[in-house]
Amino acid sequence: MATLAPAPDDVMLADLAREAVLLFAGSATLILLPLLVVAVVVGLVQTIFSVQESSISFLPKLAALMLVLAISGEAMLMNLAEFLELGLADMVGAIR
């Protein structure tokens, strides 16, 4: 029984999906990792000082999120724009 080679459209879609997952994972990691570190540090400080207020941890996490977005937000948006541009060019090329 002979196996058929995948169509170029299938390969293009698989590559596009792989790139989308990698782009999402990289962006999510870039945002979530600093927030996790801040949450652990704030939780330890609250535990050490026996502070039971849960709203205290909100402001440091918000500040960390704003700092991460200020530093790397432009690069993440440029990566997204590049992915969109290449994906649309691949789709147009597949139609022709």
Task: Summarize the entry for a quick read.
The protein is mostly helical and 96 residues long.
Name its key features.
96 residues, mainly alpha, 0% strand
SSE blueprint and pairings:
Blueprint: H1 8-48, H2 58-95
Helix pairs in contact: 1-2
Describe the structure.
With 96 residues, the protein is mostly helical. The chain has one domain (8-95). It contains two helices and no strands. The longest helix has 41 residues, at 8-48. The radius of gyration is 21 Å and the shape is elongated.
Structural class of the secondary elements?
A: mainly alpha
Order of helices and strands: HH
- In total, the number of domains comes to 1
Helix content: over 70%
Radius of gyration (CA) equals 21 Å
Instruction: Give a count of the beta strands, DSSP E runs of length 2 or more.
Output: 0
Portion in strands: under 5%
* Poorly predicted residue ranges: none
Tally of helical segments: 2
- End-to-end distance, in Å? 32 Å
Question: What's the overall average pLDDT, rounded?
Answer: 86
Sheet with the most strands, sense and barrel status: none
Q: Outline, from the CA principal axes? A: elongated
